[in-house]
Amino acid sequence: MNSAANDFAPDWVSPPGDTILDLMEERDWNQVELASRLGFSTKHLNRLVKGKVALTYDAALKLERVLGVPADFWMRRESKYRQHVARLEESEKFLMWVDWLDELPVKELRRVGVIEDLRFTKGNKSKLVESLLHFFGVASPDEWRECYGSMSARFRRTQENQSNNGAISSWLRLGEIAAENMETKKYNKKAFEDAVDKIRELTVLPFGEARPKIARFCLDAGVKFLLVDSIPGSHVSGVARWLNGHSPIIQLSLYGKSNDKFWFTFFHEAAHILLHSDEKKSIFLDDVDFDSGEKKEKEANVWAANLLIPKEHRIELLSLRAEGEILEFSKKVNVHPGIVVGRLQHERQIKYSSPLNRLKESLEV
């Protein structure tokens, strides 16, 4: 074998034809001579040298016999070159797709570290497009619109301002990715009803202590509980949805960041799972203000409210004003006093600016 061929270290970005030309030059052959030895037409060899036709394994074996360079070398050379060509073509597509970035919360997704932290310059936009395609797990913006843009038709919204589909779909995707790594049992409605009763008892605990127990009780019943930091513009505090029709998810953002809102939102979403499993294709988007007139939202509201503070205590609840009364009542019904304060505010019995807000616990994801 020719030692020059053994030591040859080509630029892997160039086509295999560049190596062929170098080896031809060593032997003082022209393309007519080499084509004759390979059994190719001169036209075919010329197209092969220029990278206009792919180098097949049959051609690689012939080059091995004629030029003394192993067939595997030629195939690796061809593979690297075709990969490079494909990436160049993809880069051109990415440049054509940069307008898609206007539909997405790029800054926020950079902040949470799911895409590259690149400055929003012309040179970086194609890289951001590629990074976002990886994040959403789609091949192009067209597939994103098919998988996520069209998802908006399944949204059951509680607020008119839940219209930023880019922000909402990004937040939902963060939940999907987190859910992929969670092992859970098969969903069982009775088990989840029992889990909800156990979780209700956790409302008196500090959130940091309650959080892992909520997740464990949910997983044991086949429900994935997720806390995903909010994406500005999504206006979503919680969502109940089913993945693939058999895996229910409760995803909360802590939008509002107080324990009264957290607990009401959690049980509101639990109600959707338990009461509305006939709509597994629906995605129930909820904001901290649940005054939607939609029937299923009202049902979830009533269910969550009565679970936290049973309706037989409603008259006594509405009479509460003083901090001592609230603390005594919360012990009686076994819920955190912040939940009682939040309920009284929702019932317009005390102001949202009330000093009693100090009874609430402030939360972080």
Report on the architecture of this protein.
It is built from 17 helices and 5 strands. It is of the alpha/beta class. It has 3 domains: 3-95, 434 Repressor (Amino-terminal Domain) (Orthogonal Bundle); 97-136, no CATH class; 153-359, no CATH class. Helix 5 crosses helix 6 (71-96). The N and C termini lie far apart (65 Å).
Short description:
With 365 residues, this protein is α/β, with parallel strands linked by helices. The protein has helices spanning 3-7, 16-27, 31-38, 42-49, 57-67, 71-96, 106-111, 122-136, 141-149, 165-180, 189-200, 207-220, 259-275, 295-308, 314-318, 323-333, 337-346; strands at residues 155-156, 224-227, 238-243, 247-252, 283-286. It starts with a helix and ends in a 19-residue tail after the last helix.
Write the layout of secondary structure elements.
Blueprint: H1 3-7, H2 16-27, H3 31-38, H4 42-49, H5 57-67, H6 71-96, H7 106-111, H8 122-136, H9 141-149, E1 155-156, H10 165-180, H11 189-200, H12 207-220, E2 224-227, E3 238-243, E4 247-252, H13 259-275, E5 283-286, H14 295-308, H15 314-318, H16 323-333, H17 337-346
Parallel strand pairs: 1-5, 2-4
Antiparallel strand pairs: 3-4, 3-5
Helix pairs in contact: 3-4, 5-6, 6-8, 11-12, 13-14, 13-17, 16-17
